[in-house]
């Protein structure tokens, strides 16, 4: 014949693994874009293959095939693992098509449709369902070497529908998964708590390249994130990430962009954040013996209208930071705290604060019981502190300027310097917070130098008690518990008081005048014919001194 043609019709049965090997060694590999090269497969398949081969031009060969898979499985790094695959796959020398292939993904049924474009790009559309157990499988597949992501799934329950769109054009693979999450409930604290019947749009897009991948995630208007991983020693490692949080209904999330610097960007606008609840959750997620390395924090820009942390409430908080080679610097503005903070990452860390205002926040009101209250409070590793505040307020009383230097040492926390300064008085203290993890006890040596006792008492909430007066109060105090757990009923220690040149204003008039007249200390005043205190409200004194002992909150004069 002038143009001899070889025509072959064949039927081949065998394992899917052998079928994939056949495809990889045939011209069909050009249609699959190398997608089948790294597949791990199992199951049985039957191939019906028709070939038309011009013997004088083998490159012009045409073929048409139908591959029927029975109870197959398929796994690769670029796609979710598929099991229980049943259905036909059709192909020619220029196309690849699959309609209504049934399989299981994430432990639930999934329907798959596949086609190729003119540029031989493979396009896969999938619809399925996912449950909480399957979410753990998905999180575990993200390349994490620890249990943190898997543990996070313990706070989710239920199941929901999802749709997936996968585009494969080797070496690039793009995956997009969407769901309204109806049927999934979340026990995570706000803003990520969720009822099963609530609709919350989730979209995850992942772009894979030979030596990197980029994932973009949006969760309604609550969260937007972008994460870049790059290859290092043959494994993908977290390189940079940007996370944007929101819980203000009127606000819309803006598209997040990655910076050029390695690390985490953290921005957001939250109406409320319970940091205590999140501390417990993160402690539980990290698990015991976690050896994760901290990811550098490259940028913070957060607004939180109400923040509950360490059982205290901070209002109208704004925090921004600047990167620093030794740690992090941040500017803080809130109703309670204003100034600059620096965090130095050494040992347990060191916090340096230079503040214009420091008001000890009020206790978190009406705290309701949540899942995090049932968790054991993690043991704290308190950092070293170096704090200066121009104005320090506690229990709505202004104590003037604050200086605090303290640091941990073995099982103790040393208070090297605690100083409260006002024009009329200075309180200085030093001591220890002993065995602060297992059996805390607080010891303080205090010296209170008073220039004007009357004004000092006015400013701490005892007005019109004393007029004038100056002196010193020294105390060696001890109580069980931490410094912030001060309780007068459990106070122990010694007091030494020396005061002079003052006048008590609130004394019974008759008794006060009689004492003033009989007191030997007032004799010099009487010799100068000074009887002013006898005609005014109160009892003048030239000197008061004494010592006392405290035992379980009861003071005994010595």
Name the beta content range.
over 45%
How many E strands? 32
Q: Mind describing the biggest β-sheet?
A: 32 strands, mixed
What's the helical proportion of residues? 10-25%
Low-confidence region ranges: 369-379, 510-518
Tell me the radius of gyration: 37 Å
Using the alpha-carbon principal axes, give the shape.
Answer: rod-shaped
Q: First CA to last CA: what distance?
A: 130 Å
**Overall average residue pLDDT:** 81
Q: What class, by secondary structure content?
A: mainly beta
Number of helices: 7
Write structural notes for this entry:
- The protein has 7 helices and 32 strands.
- The radius of gyration is 37 Å and the shape is rod-shaped.
- The N and C termini lie far apart (130 Å).
- The protein is mainly beta and 558 residues long.
- It has a 32-stranded mixed beta sheet that branches.
């Amino acid at each position: 014949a002038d143009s001899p043609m070889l025509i072959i019709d064949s039927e081949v049965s065998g394992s899917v693994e052998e079928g994939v090997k056949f495809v990889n060694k045939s011209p069909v590999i050009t249609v699959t874009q190398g997608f089948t090269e790294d597949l791990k497969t199992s199951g049985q398949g039957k191939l019906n293959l028709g070939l038309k081969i011009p013997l004088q031009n083998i490159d012009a060969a045409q073929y048409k095939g139908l591959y029927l898979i029975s109870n197959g499985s398929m796994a690769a790094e670029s796609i979710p693992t598929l099991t229980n695959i049943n259905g036909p796959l059709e192909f020619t020398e220029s196309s690849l098509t699959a309609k209504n292939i049934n399989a299981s993904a994430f432990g639930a049924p999934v329907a798959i449709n596949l086609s190729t474009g003119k540029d031989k790009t493979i396009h896969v559309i999938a619809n399925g369902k996912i449950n909480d157990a399957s979410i753990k499988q998905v999180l575990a597949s993200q390349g994490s070497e620890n249990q943190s992501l898997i543990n996070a799934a313990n706070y989710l329950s239920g199941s929901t529908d999802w749709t997936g769109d996968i585009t494969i054009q080797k070496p690039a693979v793009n995956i997009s998964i969407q769901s309204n999450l109806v049927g999934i409930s979340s026990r995570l604290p706000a803003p990520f708590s969720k009822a099963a019947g609530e609709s919350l749009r989730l979209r995850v897009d992942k772009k894979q390249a030979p030596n990197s991948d980029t994932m973009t995630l949006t969760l309604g208007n609550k969260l937007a994130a972008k994460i870049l991983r790059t290859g290092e020693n043959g494994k993908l490692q977290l390189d940079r990430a940007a996370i944007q949080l929101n819980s203000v209904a009127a606000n819309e999330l803006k598209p997040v962009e990655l910076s050029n610097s390695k690390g985490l960007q953290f921005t957001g606008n939250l109406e409320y954040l319970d940091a205590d609840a999140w501390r417990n959750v993160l402690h539980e997620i990290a698990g015991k013996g976690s050896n994760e390395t901290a990811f550098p924090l490259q940028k913070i820009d957060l607004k939180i209208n109400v923040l509950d942390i360490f059982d205290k409430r901070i209002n109208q908080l704004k925090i921004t930071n600047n990167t620093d080679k030794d740690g992090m610097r941040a500017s803080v503005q809130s109703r309670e705290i204003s100034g600059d903070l620096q965090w130095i990452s050494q040992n347990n860390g060191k916090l340096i604060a230079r503040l214009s205002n420091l008001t000890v926040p009020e206790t978190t009101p009406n705290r309701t019981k949540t899942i995090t209250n049932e968790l054991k409070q993690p043991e704290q590793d308190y950092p070293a502190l170096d704090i200066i505040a121009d104005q320090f307020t506690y229990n709505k009383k202004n104590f003037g300027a604050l200086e605090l230097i303290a640091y941990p040492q073995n099982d103790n926390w040393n208070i090297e310097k605690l100083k409260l300064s006002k024009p009329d008085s200075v309180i200085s203290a030093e001591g220890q917070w002993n065995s602060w993890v297992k059996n805390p006890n607080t010891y303080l040596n205090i010296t209170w130098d008073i220039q004007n006792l009357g004004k000092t008492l006015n400013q701490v909430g005892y007005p019109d008690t004393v007029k004038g007066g100056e002196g010193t109060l020294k105390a060696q105090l001890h109580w069980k518990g931490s410094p912030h757990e001060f309780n007068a009923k459990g106070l122990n220690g010694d007091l030494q008081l020396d005061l002079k040149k003052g006048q008590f204003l609130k004394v019974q008039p008759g008794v006060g005048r009689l004492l003033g007249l009989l007191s030997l200390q007032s004799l010099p005043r009487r010799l100068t014919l000074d009887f002013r205190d006898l005609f005014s409200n109160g009892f003048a004194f030239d000197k008061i001194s004494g010592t006392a002992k405290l035992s379980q909150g009861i003071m005994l004069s010595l």
